[in-house]
Amino acid sequence: MKLTTHHRTARAAAESWREELLGLSHQLHADPELSYQEHRSAAALAGLAERGGFAVERGVAGLPTAFTGVCGSGDLVIGVCAEYDALPGIGHACGHNVNGTAALGAALALGAVADDLGITVKLLGTPAEEDGGGKVDMIEHGLFDEVAVAMMVHANDADTVGNSSLAIGSWNLTYIGRPAHAAAAPWEGRNALDALTVAQTALGLLRQQLPPESRVHGIVTDGGQAANVIPARSAARYEVRSPSMESLRTLQDRVRACFEAGALATGTELHMEAHGHDFADLRQDTTVAELYAGAAEALGRTVGRAPQRTGSTDMGNVSHLLPTIHPMIGYDTGGARQHTYEFAAAGTSAGADRAVLDGAVAMAWTGVALAADAGHRERLLAAVGRRAAERERAAGDGGGPHP
Fold it and tell me: What Gene3D superfamilies does UniProt report for this protein, alphabetically (predicted)?
């Protein structure tokens, strides 16, 4: 790719923040915070954005750990999504310290050329990707309405573009039975743990008929309090994944029937409630993804283009709303995959540090390419206009601005 003055200015801006960005990545890694509890992480990212000249608003979408930062005033709004939550027990085993600081670096780099390119850079601090779905909350509060294109990079063991993800829904389940003495009068009880066992047996049998790439998995969070008391309560959390939102709904109906069978067989009551938001499957914009791949390759990275289906992400919900990319940016993890102790341990390596800076520059250069090309710009702005018209129609029909 041919580098312009805007490319060089954006890269120089990212490099000027190198020490602060890498220090922040290491800080997040050493102080992992769980979903919706990322107070120190969000404050650190927002504070550095503020130092970089961004107008920061904290606590957006009713979420104490969500924020936005805006720089520039152009009609083309380029959104960069920062993730920073960690996993219980194993910290930043999904690399969100890399994700979040690369996003911040990209925003700072684009901010340096925002006025020249006629763009607005919007940094979106999105909590709870691992558990809950902060991006969905922010969509529902209109924080993506004016965004023309959204991007982020995700830590991985190799660079790839064009990946998709599985749609996912999660439930909290509780069975309520009746306690009884397990030896003296077990027949007087209604065994809530047996209800969960029946449901798990039904799920085990269902799995042999699951469509390809569909998944059902979960944990038991309460199985009773004493071995000599018939359990009056059991609880679990289960997740259902499928290649699309449509197939997810179908599968959820079948899985729900398995849980209802447990209650029916044991005479217990079943209570089910959604845990967080459902995540949609990820649909990346191929044109923007290829621009990113070219930028990353210009930085000396090797980018794979064999699309794979990864886990699940609330960036999928963003991708159903507007052009989105979610490329993987890789570094040596010793062969470890995400959500492992070994992957977490690699999160402050030299390779991870390079991923922060390269991811920032590659995203910034992608933004430059979109803003500088009249065709790209027109396509993105036209889509924003169509979405605005759809919201107006929905509001006129009584459906509200954010159905």
Answer: 3.30.70.360, Zn peptidases (3.40.630.10)
